[in-house]
C-alpha cells in the first residue's frame, strides 16, 4: 500500500471526494477510486466516507493506493473465428461467453489471449492489457468486433467511432410485444447510484441513443428486434430496453427473473460497416447468430 495525504483548499470546497481524487490521480480511473472508497481506503479527517461526500476547506484527505497487480497475458490457441484480416485490421466473430480482454478473475481464455497467439501485430494504443482492442462487447454477447493491427489504424477507427461513422447493428430477443414498428431511445446512461456494478438511465449520465425496429412478434410474449447504435455506452442496448419495459431475454443483470433458460442475454452483434483506415474503402460485414441465440428463439416460439 502507498499512503498519501492532501489538504482541501478553497478551490475544491464542496467537491465530491471521488471527483477530487480523480483530479489528483490522473493515472487512476474514477471507478478505481470509487472501489478504494468502498474498501475504506479513503478517509477525511481520519474517518471513512462515501464517494458522494462533499469536501470542506481545511480538511485532510488521506488514501492508500493498493499495489497494482501485474497481469501476465499469455498467448493461447483459442480457434478464433476470423471473418476478415489484412495488414491493418482483423474482424472477429466473438463467441458468446468469451471475455474481450484480461482483468481480475479473467486471466486466460480472453479474446486478447487468442489474438496474441494469432498475430504479433496489434496496436498498442490501449496498453498491454488491451492490445488491438478498438471497442468491446459484453462477455455473453456474441458477434463482430474490429481489431486494429497498428496504432495508425487504431486511431483512425477510434475517430470514426467518436464521429459516429461506424455502423453497428444487433439482434435482440426481448420480453413483451413492442406495439410500434420503429423507435429511438434517447436516454443518458451512467453508473447506477444504487448498484455501482451496473448501469442505468440517470440524469447526469452520458448521451446514449439506440434505434430499433421490430422484426417479429412472437406469441404476444416476445419480440425479435434489430438495434442500431448511435453511441456506444456500457451495456447500452441492455439498459435501454429495460428502461422502456422490454428487457432482453436471458439477461442476468437487467432482465426478468422468470425467463427462458439459457446462457446469458439474447443479444448478437450481427453487422459492422465502416471506412477502412488505410484504403478508405467502405467495408460491410455480417454474421448469423449462434446456436445459443437460436435456442432462445425456438423456445419463444414454443410458448403459448
Write a short abstract of this structure.
With 304 residues, this protein is of the alpha+beta class.
Explain the overall architecture.
The protein is α+β, with helices and mostly antiparallel strands. Helices cover 19% and strands 30% of the residues. The chain is built from six helices and 15 strands. A hairpin with a 3-residue loop joins strand 12 and strand 13. Helix 1 packs across helix 2. The radius of gyration is 22 Å and the shape is globular.
Q: How many helical stretches?
A: 6
- Tally of DSSP β-strands: 15
Oligomer: single chain
Helix content: 10-25%
Structural class: alpha+beta
Measure the end-to-end span. Answer: 58 Å
What proportion strand? 25-35%
> Which consecutive residue ranges, at least 5 long each, have pLDDT under 50?
none
Query: Can you write the helix and strand succession as a string?
Result: EHHEEEEEHEHEEEEEEHEEH
The biggest beta sheet reads: 9 strands, mixed
Radius of gyration: 22 Å
Q: Please, what is the average pLDDT? A: 92
Q: Looking at the structure, what is the overall shape?
A: globular
Question: Main traits of this protein?
Answer:
304 residues, alpha+beta, 4-stranded antiparallel beta sheet, globular
